[in-house]
Amino acid sequence: MVDIALAHDRMMIASLRGLSDQLADDISAGGPTHAQIDPDTSLNVYTWNAALRAAGAALAATDSVIAGEMENAFCAVRPPGHHACRAKAMGFCFFNNVAIAARYALERHGLKRVAIVDFDVHHGNGTEDILAGDDRVLMVSFFQHPLFPFSGAEPSAKNMVNLPVPPYTKGMDVRELIEMMWIPRLEKFKPEMIFISAGFDAHRDDDLGQMGLVEQDYAWITQRIKDVARRHSKGRIVSSLEGGYNLNALARSVEAHIRVLAEL
Ligand SMILES: [Zn+2]
Asked: How many angstroms is it from 209 CA to the middle of ligand 1?
């Protein structure tokens, strides 16, 4: 809980906890089984623990990678995190798993620079809200625009490299943008560790977005991140699942991502 507060307002954490407790009381009194935070985001009695464990997985992975027990890690968790803002849960997200882990690496492990790569189809507005202006962090992302949460076209700080792209953008165009816009910034920043907000909803089979990525694109992106990590970060990567809603495409894309991370 102390670590969650590295990225979230204490009042926000307490109110989620309160909402969860209230829900448990209501259910035993015969009330509703869900509480709605916004039209996309509802919680049931299991949500609080699931959200804590999702964030905890990213922290455990961070500990393990920094300790050298493994070079990189993938956290197959839900709920996702990148829409969760400092003071607000939204967009399926409760705690910002990647932002919490990035701050944890800086504050608890004493790293000086960490990078966040977000390739979810949606703008990681929560991560930006929490980390914009924190010059120990460089965040690079692309996202379909306009699309939920309809932000990010105007980056809010110098440490945010936002690439809004139109619907129907294909993998080849995304690769070119990454090569031109992400890689030089990452190379210059020399992160000591890289976190990935690994959303797979930019896949062409995913109906939540209208982009055209396929498994090979995720493998390519992962390899490029890995190249940077090898050069500057002792290979250290912690990747955490964000979106991805076509379960077949999600499974194939996660497999492609993990095969590159684990060199399988
Ligand atoms: Zn998404």
From this structure: 8
Dump pLDDT digits (tens) for 197-219: 999 999 999 999 999 999 999 99
Nearest CA to 213 among 247, 244, 180?
A: 244
Q: How far is the CA of 121 from the centre of ligand 1 (A)?
A: 5
CA of 243 to the centre of ligand 1 (A): 4
For the sheet with 137-144, list strands across it: 72-75, 237-241, 193-198, 114-118, 137-144, 160-165
Walking along the chain (264 residues) 10 residues at a time, the average pLDDT comes out as: 95 97 94 93 97 98 98 98 98 98 98 98 98 98 98 94 98 98 98 99 98 98 98 98 98 98 97
| Distance in Å, CA 213 to ligand 1 centroid | 13
Structure tokens at 54: 């999702």
pTM here?
0.98
The neighbourhood of ligand 1, an ion, using CB within 5 A, equals 120, 122, 199, 201, 243
Residue 29 CA, ligand 1 centroid: distance in Å:
35
- d(CA 113, CA 135) in angstroms, rounded, equals 8
